[in-house]
Write a structure and sequence with these properties.
Elements lengths: L6 H18 L13 E6 L6 E7 L8 H6 L10 E6 L11 H7 L4 E6 L9 H8 L3 E3 L4 H7 L1 H9 L3 E8 L4 E4 L10 H12 L3 E5 H7 L16 E5 L10 H4 L6 E5 L5 H10 L2 E4 L2 E2 L2 E2 L1 H10 L4 E6 L1 H9 L5 E6 L8 E3 L11 E9 L2 E8 L2
Parallel strand pairs: 3-4, 4-5, 6-14, 6-15, 8-9, 8-14, 9-10, 10-11
Antiparallel strand pairs: 1-2, 1-3, 7-16, 12-13, 15-18, 17-18
Helix pairs in contact: 3-4
Pathway: Cofactor biosynthesis; riboflavin biosynthesis; 5-amino-6-(D-ribitylamino)uracil from GTP: step 3/4; Cofactor biosynthesis; riboflavin biosynthesis; 5-amino-6-(D-ribitylamino)uracil from GTP: step 2/4
Protein name: Riboflavin biosynthesis protein RibD
Catalytic activity: 5-amino-6-(5-phospho-D-ribitylamino)uracil + NADP(+) = 5-amino-6-(5-phospho-D-ribosylamino)uracil + NADPH + H(+); 2,5-diamino-6-hydroxy-4-(5-phosphoribosylamino)-pyrimidine + H2O + H(+) = 5-amino-6-(5-phospho-D-ribosylamino)uracil + NH4(+)
Length: about 375
């Protein structure tokens, strides 16, 4: 017989899980092969629940969030509740599993959000807790956690990163003008939101056409978040990128990967390598880089989230190969005109299988988001 629901406790659980999810965003894009997880340790000694410990997966992926939250809590953990945005790990490495760490600390209750698809963990973390007499409540704000952990979940299930396609469209559906470099389409507030998207991604990807046309740096330029710039990836089958490109200029600070095909000039490649540029050898299909295989390679490099920023040909290729998991369209208020480059997708041509999830306003601009189910 199922236990009777407790609306008051359920509301408390949702409140603290929402806080744990906010905390987990702190290191998105910075935890390598591990996901950025949030953990809160909460106890109630009669005066209401109080947070006594908090942790997020450390930069680089270790220690895990549970260990970070338990550090320094001591006896306050005994009898407390742990709110964890992803099922605690159950496999042994150089350190004990997080599920065991919670048991050993005396945690009495664990509230989890997303389940871990990793076969070393899936269900086993919760089983360790229950076997030790710990009360376990699963799937609190699971949908919100799954959305935030989509990169980790997709890489685990599909062996490739989560791909977000981001485009800025003028009021007449154009994304730029040929031969004129970068064209401002949205306002400053919307552009700052894009900077935040970059700061939470593992990598940004563009095609060589955009690299040659716009000469972008693709770094995070928000004050205080400059060190959150993700790796840059350019689809450059024939190694056409100039050594003078902005992408190369700061390669010592932000990694640059060039995805190239066979037969590129070895002397040019060596010159780039001396500058610190990294290369990814790719297969080609019908004269273009084979994107499914490239995505597998990026997952093997530890990348879980890739933000595709341009241009039209690259966006079309990812859509054609059904590699896009999330579509984000920013719609500006000004027209570009007949000489503009038409967007390969708009609000009326979203592929089947995607669900509209959010609509936001940034100044005069509208941002809409669609997500494909995991």
């Amino acid at each position: 017989m199922a236990a009777a629901s407790n609306p008051v406790q359920e509301a408390i659980d949702r409140r603290y899980m929402a806080a744990a999810l906010r905390l987990s965003r702190r290191n998105l894009g910075r935890t390598a092969t591990n996901p950025s997880v949030g953990t809160l340790i909460v106890r109630d000694d009669g005066a209401g629940p109080m947070i006594v410990g908090s942790g997020v997966t450390a930069i680089g992926g270790r220690p895990h969030a549970e260990a970070e939250a338990l550090a320094g809590v001591g006896e306050l953990a005994r009898g407390a509740t742990a709110y964890v945005t992803l099922e605690p790990c159950a496999h042994h490495g150089r350190t004990p599993p997080c599920a065991n760490a919670l048991v050993n600390a005396g945690i009495a209750r664990v509230v989890g959000a997303a389940s871990d698809p990793d076969p070393r963990v899936s269900g086993k973390g919760y089983a360790i807790l229950r076997a030790a007499g710990v009360e376990v409540v699963e799937k609190v704000l699971a949908a919100e956690a799954n959305a935030q952990l989509a990169g980790y979940l997709i890489r685990s299930l599909r062996k490739r990163p989560e791909v977000t396609l981001k485009l800025a469209l003028s009021s007449d559906g154009k994304i730029g003008r040929r031969g004129q470099g970068q064209v401002t389409i949205t306002g400053e507030i919307a552009r700052r939101e894009v900077q935040m998207m970059r700061a939470e991604a593992d990598a940004i990807l563009i095609g060589i056409g955009t690299a040659l046309e716009d000469d972008p740096a693709l770094t995070v330029r928000l004050p205080g978040l400059e060190n959150r710039s993700p790796a840059r990836i350019v689809l450059d089958r024939d190694l056409r990128l100039p050594e003078t490109a902005k992408l190369v200029a700061d390669v010592d600070r932000v990694p640059l990967h060039l995805a190239v095909g066979e037969g590129v000039d070895l002397q040019r490649k060596a010159a780039f390598e001396r500058r610190g540029v990294r290369f990814i050898g790719t297969d080609t299909h019908n004269g273009a880089i084979a994107l499914p295989e490239l995505m597998e390679d990026l997952a093997a490099l530890g990348m879980a989230t890739v933000l595709v920023e341009g241009g039209a040909a690259t966006a079309s290729a990812f859509l054609a190969d059904s590699l896009v998991d999330r579509i984000v369209l920013f719609r500006g208020v000004d027209e570009i005109g007949a000489d503009g480059i038409a967007s390969p997708i708009n609000e009326g041509s979203i592929p089947s299988g995607f669900t509209a999830t959010r609509e936001m306003r940034f100044g005069d601009d509208i941002c809409r988001e669609w997500v494909r189910a995991l």
